[in-house]
Amino acid sequence: MARIEEKIAEITDSALRLSIAEEVANLKKHTRFGLVFEEHQPEFVPVYGKKIKRGERVAKKTGDLTVIWRVVAIKNGQALCELEIGSQGIAGDRETFPVEQLVIIRSMGEPIYPSLTPVDSVINGDPSLPHHVLIEADNYHALQLLLFPYERKVDCIYIDPPYNTGARDWKYNNDYVDDNDSWQHSKWLTFMSKRLRLAKRLLNPDSGVLIVTIDEHEVHHLGCLLEQEFPDATMQMATIVINQKGVAQGGLSRAEEYALFVFMPNANVPPAADDLLSPDRADNKRFRNPRWEWLLRGGTNSRREDRPGLFFPVHVDPATRTIVSIGEPLPLDQRPDQGTVDNTVAWPFRTDGTLGNWRVSPPTLRTLLAKGYVKLGGYDEARKTWTILYLGQKAQRQIDEGAICIVSRDATTNAVALEYVAGEQRSIKTVWHRALHDAGTYGSSFLRNILGEGGRFAFPKSIYAVRDAVAAVVRDKPNALLVDFFAGSGTTLNAVNLLNATDGGQRQCILVTNNEVSEEESRSLTAQGLQPGQDEWDRHGICRSVTWPRSKFTIRGERDDGTSLPGDYITGKQVPRDKPRNIRQLGFVEGRHLTVPQRKQVAALLPNVPQNKVDDAPWLLNDDMAVSILWDIQHASTWLEELGEADHVTEIFVVTMENRVFTRLKTEIIELLGAQVVSEDEKRPLANGFATNLEYFRLDFLDPQEIQMGRQFAAVLPVLWMMAGSRGARPAPPDEHAPWLLPDGCPFAVLMQETRFKEFVRHVDHRADLTHVFIVTNSHDTVHKLRREWPELHVVQLYKDYLENFRINLSENSTL
Description:
- By secondary structure, the chain is α/β, with parallel strands linked by helices.
- It has five domains: 2-107, SH3 type barrels (Roll); 115-277 and 429-571, 3-Layer(aba) Sandwich (Rossmann fold), CATH 3.40.50; 280-424, no CATH class; 581-674, no CATH class; 708-806, no CATH class.
- It is built from 19 helices and 36 strands.
- It comes from Noviherbaspirillum sedimenti.
- Keywords: Methyltransferase, Transferase.
């Protein structure tokens, strides 16, 4: 419809124009099933730096690009222009403008010939490895160009497009789109749909993944659009908390944004290690070596009369410290003579001298003993019996599930030694709540840390949110190719470099961003008499003032003035560190004299001790608590045996008034447990930089009249270099009369003069490192000969007028 309206605007008969416009308005009232939006008018792109000549289509540099004029004549720096398309005035109206205020315009569907102009580079790694690429350009045309080297080859596309909040955060045809724009949503959807269609062609159709971040303003529209454009893919949405305090917006405070993952049919999401996307690893306690539990029941139902069938003897051999057999329950009217009990039998005697019971029945205990899940502890002098230890149901279940493995088995006692499976693999969840994803601390502040206070960018992503998003799908692809065509502040490249440095990968990242200046800077620069296209204006743009400096500084580890970047990255890995345990005496009372309510009052004064865990046992020691309390020092020896299996305990309290006893126990605890080995985040100084390379290009456009054989080869040479993997130092263009190009260190060759075919073949045969051969020819026979000559190489034909290969901006259904 929008294109029809564009044509209607060109009708010079006002009555006819009005009549047709009314009929079109009626047609627009009819909707179709699915996502319905008005496909807005084509986008226009300004072509700066090209000489304005008679017949060119132009617009004002600082105006609406949809108001298009045709240059009729140029004289004395003034251009006489005739209105061709515009929202105001009548087609055919004429006006004169200073030439320096105008810019050549190309619209969607009008063929243009792009070129990549090298701007800068940073070389800080092995030149033979893939170079990253930054392209300063309108991303629609950049995507069309990228189809030539990368169609169907990209493993992951990560984009953070404009959120269309109405806060003048993006432009359509050089005009800000805000809440006052009645076409706000349709413009955004049109803008996105065109780019997503190209993105789909870039993605590996089998295993590629597209990740799009968005907030609530367009999340539902985007979801429908993605389903429409990727009908064969699977889509999931992750909720990412980016501001834990929330942002008040008149109703609920928004704390999150969303990442929509679009998985092509055979895309793989590798399982995550424990440190990936867990809530700050608060659940690390689940991944320590398991602890044996007391077989003696404590707490409720722990008296003999509560469970008579669980009062039975366990026969032991003190010499070998083994369990010999399991007896039967002793009738309730009988009781063992505690005065004659010897050390060959273990009974469930409680710490206060009364009779208790075991946790399991005799048949169950026999089964556990056969499996090696029961073992003999120490002899308890206070209770005059042995301590029996067993593996509880939770540990048994984790053994069955594979979360715990049996490391060894004692040859004498049959008791097993256990260990949690290192780095247990789990699926990544759809809710990400991590402090590292905070956009303020690890986005805005992090960026200022790199660029200094002068480096401003609205709402940069947390580097760790981006790192985790791309790692979720390429962590098992060390050579993945990634593209971000809304590169903004360059967070994606920074995140990919960090991921590579952490796991030794060689992932390659292609960034595309425009060079728009902010609204505030635009007003300031305009007031100074500056215009887009001038160096004084362009150096304030996003790409040149933020994306490129950040990328360059983070690779080098220093700014242009030589100052090192401060601070550290969090790599995502964990490293061990010794941490002393806190061992303290509670010397105001003797713990064994306290009742259970009194113990609970004492426990309430201690950190992280739930009162429901406190009972009449001589000590408190639990798998789920980092705190242990010795209430009765008379049972210290048995407690120490138990404590020796509890490496997770970091806070230890001894409730006694006997200072010398506490001093002795503290020495024994330190010798027994030593310092606790804790895991902490591995850090990498920003000043270390990254051993990698980056090429910075600007997308320019060629004059069709200059496209002749042997000319403008420099314009497409970077694309050939990229197609061959962006490996080796980017070569300089050869002399225009050179018959071929065979650059050292680059895995490609180009034959420009077909008549030198045989000589070219001999030179290529001496290069074992080549992967691509390009030949400028109209002869398919020559191409087939080369493909037969080098079946292992990619042989690509470039036509005689080879720049026709790079003609872009055609209709969406055409091919390059």
